[in-house]
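Propose amino acids for all 266 sites.
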């Protein structure tokens, strides 16, 4: 029997391992769960930190093409689940009719939606074209900006298990260097033929505030394609990895079922 694939795309400062609990949960429901890392990302977090220079040249174009190729490789069109910049990529792909459906969790802003100020405070812009530079978070920065709704002990545990440096070039492509955003940050919000899209926000998210995700949702107002929004109270940008991750994952599973996107397609 064929199973519906689900491709998980992680965002900045996280490793692909950040989807480990989601992959297990979705697999237990019959889906084929895939958590492919970024190009140059080592299998383990520790090795990625040691060899993090391989991530330095990664931009939004490279990431988008990387995941587009993966999603297109399946005989059954996958569901795409992305967090942060992964949520932006998920929207870009489904807007281009790549994939069966998409879930964008705390997604980086698309099109001309204003950027939140918080991420810019975490790094020094420098030269946006400098491919040799990385941006790392300290445990304190991670807790303050990323996992601000959990206790310090849990935040430190999440940091040790999942956090890696991210590409300065990628942040510049998203517009945080004061430069124009990459064309890959543009999403066809008017495509009425695309698959269903679910947007998710955490109402205490400082990196991608709930107001930003609500603005993204309004961008799709003129499309007749299915677009839904779910807001989680008291949740931060860490909502996919912290102790409340299962509430979010189970909501996504329920949404997929309601939309007829089941593990065993007819």
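Proposal:
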């Amino acid at each position: 029997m064929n199973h519906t694939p689900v491709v998980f795309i992680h965002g900045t400062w996280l490793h692909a391992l950040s989807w480990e609990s989601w992959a297990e949960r979705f697999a237990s429901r019959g889906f084929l769960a895939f958590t492919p890392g970024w190009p140059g990302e080592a299998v383990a977090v520790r090795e990625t930190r040691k060899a993090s220079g391989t991530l330095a040249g990664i931009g939004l174009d490279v990431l988008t093409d990387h995941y587009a190729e993966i999603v297109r490789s399946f005989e059954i069109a996958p569901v795409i689940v992305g967090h942060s910049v992964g949520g932006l990529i998920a929207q870009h792909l489904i807007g281009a009719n790549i994939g069966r459906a998409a879930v964008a969790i705390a997604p980086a802003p698309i099109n001309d939606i204003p950027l939140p100020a918080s991420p810019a405070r975490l790094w020094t812009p420098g030269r946006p074209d400098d491919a040799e530079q990385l941006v790392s978070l300290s445990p304190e920065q991670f807790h303050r900006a990323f996992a601000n709704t959990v206790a310090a002990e849990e935040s430190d545990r999440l940091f040790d298990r999942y956090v890696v440096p991210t590409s300065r070039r990628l942040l510049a492509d998203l517009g945080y260097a004061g430069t124009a955003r990459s064309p890959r940050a543009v999403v066809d919000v008017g495509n009425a033929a695309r698959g269903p899209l679910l947007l998710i926000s955490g109402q205490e998210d400082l990196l991608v505030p709930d107001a930003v995700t609500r603005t993204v949702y309004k961008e799709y107002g003129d499309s007749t394609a299915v677009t839904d929004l779910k807001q989680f109270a008291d949740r931060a940008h860490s909502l996919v990895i912290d102790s409340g991750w299962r509430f979010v994952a189970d909501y996504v599973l329920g949404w997929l079922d309601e939309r007829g996107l089941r593990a065993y397609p007819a």
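The first helix runs from residue 20 to 28. The mean pLDDT is 92.
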